[in-house]
Amino acid sequence: MKLKIKIDEDVYEVDVEIEEGGAEISAGGRQPIRPSAAIPFAPAVAPPSAPPPQAGSDRVCRSPIAGIVVRIIVREGQQIKVNDSMIVLEAMKMETNITAPFDGVVKSITVAQGQAVQPGQVLVEFE
Fold first, then answer.
1. 31 is in which domain, residue-wise?
2. Global pTM?
3. N or C: which end of the chain has fewer CB within 10 A?
4. Could you give the number of structural domains in the chain?
5. Digits of tens for pLDDT over the chain (127 positions)?
6. 32 lies in some domain
């Protein structure tokens, strides 16, 4: 496997070879480095998911993250389709679009612009 590594302004092309009994790493034709044990690889981790729904919450949209409500796009009584943008949250200077989980009519919006929300907090209720 070939990797390019940049250290300061220098770019190095590195060949990495994983063997059953260990690993050999060489950088740009330099002397190979032989670690005494195989390089362990961490298993892939699934991305965090939204908090599990609570009893009676099948007609709501919950916040998947903690953040600040930047923009409310929908209004009460509005007909929406799955994946329509409803609310924009800001967390760590990044904006996240909260979209409709299903088709429906907005019954109520339980947050206001500028409000801080927590993961799992109800943002929108549907009829």
1. 1-39
2. 0.56
3. N
4. 2
5. 777 888 888 888 877 776 665 555 555 566 655 555 555 555 655 555 545 555 454 799 999 999 999 999 999 999 999 999 999 999 999 999 999 999 999 999 999 999 999 999 999 999 9
6. yes
